[in-house]
Every structure is written in structure tokens, then in C-alpha cells.
Amino acid sequence: MHERRRAHRDTHKKIEQAQSGTARAALLGISDGLVTNVSLILGVAGAGAEPSLVRLAGLASLIAGALSMAVGEYVSMRGQTELLESVLATERKMLHNEPEAAHSAIEDALVNDGVERATAHTASREIGRDPEKAMAVYARSHLGINIDELGSAWGSAISSLIMFAFGAAIPLLPWLWLRGQTAIVTSLSLAAVSALAIGSYLGISTNGRWLRAALRQLLVLILAAGATYLIGRLFHTTIS
Hints:
The chain is an all-alpha fold and 240 residues long. The chain has helices at residues 2-20, 22-46, 51-97, 99-112, 117-128, 131-143, 153-172, 180-205, 210-235.
């Protein structure tokens, strides 16, 4: 019984985190920034560009990518919030027009959480006296929506911008003082370690399979960076 309650709470916690969008935007931002910039940097380096051009390309990619991600997250989260608000408005009308159905739904949700039927029946009636409280409980238990955490479009946008820039800066840093093959190897090594860390965190936060998630993240980065580097080499083979 206690394990079921704990599992139910954990599930709702994950749903609320996904709804907020900020954590998702941060993780997606740093991952995209890392893969995008290491791929672009190695592609330009593979074409034999001077270190100054590699730095310029990497910096331009960092700025443009971060701004693009921020705008995308804002639009996405704004649309999600408006959709959830529309669903809640419809359900709020149902609660008002069909109070008995609402009481039954809340009662069933409480029973599923392990509350005795008689207690759940009494509690559902007590909760139903306050329309806003009833709506909050109904939305959370029946719809999986926390009305206090519908997500922040600005929070997601800022989080995405900062984390994309952070991820994109990792493979760019070695080019501030290194050149040629040394810079390429160092850049790729830093990106690989970061990819393993991101994948591990993602695995631990979801299904616990951190090693599998870490290796998957590393594989994605290697494939993307390797492809752009080889394309760059097709244009020019000299690395200064």
C-alpha cells in the first residue's frame, strides 16, 4: 500500500516537472548546445579553417542557437499553457454543472491513493464545498494536472537560452588557446565527457539506467561530430 502511494506521488512529481518545462528546457538546451556546436566546430576545423574562423563560427553558433532555442521554448510552452488552461476551463464548467460526477471522480481518486471508501466519500464532500479546492484536487488526481504549475514560458525560454549557451561553450573553449589537432582532440574530449555526464543524469532521473543513457548520448555526439568533420575534410584536408 505504501509503495503504491509512493509510486503514485513520484509519478505526479515527474508530471509536474514535465509540465513546468523549465527542467526539460534546461536538459534539452545543454544537450543541443553541446552536440550542435561540437559538430559545427569540428566541421569547420575539418575544412582546414584558421583557428580564428573556428572561434568565430563557434561563437556565432552559440549566440544564434541560444536565441533560437529560447524563442522556440517560449512559443512551445506558451501554447502548452494555453491548451491546459482551455482543458481546465472545460473541466471547471463540468464540476459546476455536474457536482455529483465531480464528487464521484474525487472519491475514486482518493480510493486509488489508498484511502478507505467511506473516508474518501466524506472527504470528497468536504472538498467539494470549496470550488477552487475541488478543482485543484480533481485536476491533479483525475487529469494529472497541477493547476499551480502549468508551466512558465519565460522560465523555459531563459533556462533554454542559458543552458544551450553553456553546452555550446564547452567544445569552443579549447579553441581560445589551442590550435590544430590538439584543439580538435581536446574539444571532442571535453564534449564526450560532458555527453556522458548529461546522459548519466538523464538516466538517473528517468528509469535509472544511467550507463545506457550515457552511452547513447555519447554515440549521438560522436555520430554528429564525426559526420560534420568528414564533410569538412572533403572540402579541405589541411589543418593549421
